[in-house]
Structures are given as C-alpha cells and as structure tokens.
Specification:
This protein has helices at 5-17, 35-42, 62-68, 81-89, 106-116, 132-146, 159-169, 180-184, 196-203; strands at 53-56, 74-78, 96-100, 120-124, 151-157, 207-221, 227-238. With 241 residues, it is of the alpha/beta class. It has a seven-stranded mixed beta sheet, sandwiched between helices. This is Methyltransferase.
Length: 241
C-alpha cells in the first residue's frame, strides 16, 4: 500500500508554497517548546541511546536538527521532496541523513531498516494528518523501524484539539494566517478518537510503555496575543519483551 497521489501532491504543494523561514509553518515551533520537552519524556525509556533516531514525517527538519545535536546518528524521513529539500538546505554540515520516502510503503520502510538497523522513532503530529486508511500502515512502519530494541515517541493532538482548530477556522476573520495554507492545500487535520492512537500501535504488535498528556505548541497566536496550544496525548511504544 502507498499513499494516494492526491495526498502526495497536497504536501508537495504545501511545502513549495509556504514561506521558507523559521516559524512560518503552524507546527514548526522552536525545539525548546517541542522536541526538547518530548525528549525528556522519551529518553528514560530508550533501551540503547546509541541506536539511530528516525524523525518520521520530519518536514523541514527543525526538530530533526535538534535531535542531531544530541544523538550520533539521526535520519529525517518525509513524503514530500520539497520538505526534504528545505531540510537539507537547513543542514549545510550534513548532520542528518534526510530521505524522501513513503512510510506507508513496506518496501521503502524495510529498506530503511536494513540501512539503519533497529532505531528509535520520533513521530510528532503525523497520524492525524494522514488519510484514515494510511494510519495503520504508518503504525506498522514504526514497528518495522523499531525492530526488537527500539522505542518510539508518538505525540498527537487529541479530539478537543480538532474542535479548537475548527473554531479558529470559523472565526469571523477566517482562519489564522498560518492555518490557512493547511486548509488551502487540502491537508486539514482529521479527527481521531483519542483511543485510536494506542490501538493502532497495539495492532502493529507494539506495547504502550508510557503515556500522558501535554499541550502541543504551535507558532500561531490568538488575537489577544496568547500562543495557540493544542491539547495532545503522547505515548512511548516498543516491544516490552
């Protein structure tokens, strides 16, 4: 199975059109407010910190480069060539192995595991943006990349976050500026029941080793000047045995 051409085209168009500057993308918040917080929750569950780290759905690589300052071998994987091109431009020293790949395509995922071996995976806000039929293959891709020893940190907006985004989109002035391109390119976040995320990974043969809730920080602000934060759930998954 692979993602639809419509979905690929939507992401290519998004990354081609959105301004190429820090913070221009809704979810491209500074790492101190995102991956840095996540890493503090993730690291205690890593069985082997020397394993490679894969940022799956890395986008323009902001969080990936943060991870590369803390781990010896980091790979960034994204469906969109335009996103990977941006990520590579932002990594002139070549710290990260940025790769274009469809994570719902088993052959591509197995090839990546063959190159890296068992890995840790960072998956931030990817599942809810995926087509519903692609979510199970994405969870299965994580299971392949982890192998026997890896762990994954997964964070997804919860159901109430979807309601917040819809309310923002329906405001009298229209969606906030950084939310408009998301809707314009047809990649509006999809509603996911809160219980679906852990079940996807259990169905892929993984155990939920830890979980919790925290706000997911965006780069957008409300009219009163407060930053928009979306309620989210996080999981650490892997093979417990």
């Amino acid at each position: 199975m692979s993602v639809t051409s419509r979905y690929k085209d939507a992401w290519e168009g998004f990354w081609q059109d959105v301004p190429d500057r820090a913070g221009a993308v809704l979810w491209d918040a500074e790492p101190a407010l995102t991956a840095g917080i996540h890493l503090a929750l993730f690291e205690p569950h890593m069985t082997d910190p020397a394993l490679p780290v894969v940022d799956l759905g890395c986008g323009n690589g902001t969080q990936t480069l943060f991870l590369a300052d803390r781990f010896a071998h980091v790979a960034g994987v994204d469906l969109a060539r335009a996103a990977i091109a941006r990520a590579r431009r932002g990594d002139p020293e070549g710290q990260v192995a940025f790769t274009v790949a469809d994570a719902t395509e088993p052959q591509a995922v197995h090839r990546l595991h063959g190159e890296l071996g068992d890995s840790q995976v960072y998956l931030r806000s990817v599942l809810h943006q995926a087509e519903p039929l692609d979510r199970a293959p994405l969870a299965e891709a994580v299971a392949v990349l982890l192998g026997a020893r890896g762990r994954a940190f997964v964070v997804e907006p919860d159901e109430s976050a979807g309601r917040i985004l819809r309310q923002l989109a329906q405001s009298p002035d229209g969606p906030p500026p950084k939310l408009r391109p998301v809707f314009a390119h047809g990649i509006a976040p999809g509603a996911m029941p809160d219980g679906q995320v852990p079940e996807l990974f259990r169905a892929a043969g993984l155990d939920v080793l830890a979980s919790g809730e925290l706000p997911l920080t965006t780069t957008e602000y409300r009219p009163d000047g407060t930053r928009i934060e979306l309620p989210s759930q996080w999981l650490v998954v892997g093979r417990a045995g």
